[in-house]
């Protein structure tokens, strides 16, 4: 086995071993913030797997960890599933601290993404293959029915830009930043009131096109300055959206 193969195997194993703990912590925070209240049924394994971008076995391990802590209970049968256990005394006292921690973590990830993704967009515009740049524009026509599909399309778009630039190190940095940010963050947005971000008449397909069109067209035209600027604007807007969702939890105190 080559050194690179050994390193890849070790890295993959480490991520897989840690991922269930990350998912468990994200769900733990979501429960603590009141997003899933006592007696509420958690999304299915399939739904959680799609939302987090991890395997169903990873979700199963995470839920088992929460069950061992007494935070959830699982029953079998047609009406079974995993539900949040009754609230324990003093459980809401940590909500403000948890929200503050998530807000700080979100700031750190968004600052990092602002440091790397605008430049990735510039590279995609200036030296990306024509087929890769056209594919980014083609993505804008994708039907996006719900939040889960939005997340998958959004990820495909951002990673498509990072890959098109031809810098493997930068593409890996973008991939890891998104994976680490969204595995933890997606539990927070499940069941959130997205009306704070999108008007009721605006569907996720329209939102995806409107938020990414300027970037895609700048990349297609080969305008590195515009691609970099539009990506920076998009990330600032995304940060504001996430903060608006976090404000929902702060308002519950």
Automatic annotation (TrEMBL):
It holds the Pfam family GntR. Residues 17-87 form the HTH gntR-type domain. CDD domains: WHTH_GntR. It comes from the Bacteria. Transmembrane segments: none annotated. Keywords: DNA-binding, Transcription, Transcription regulation. This is FadR/GntR family transcriptional regulator. It comes from Streptomyces aureus. The lineage of its organism: Bacteria, Bacillati, Actinomycetota, Actinomycetes, Kitasatosporales.
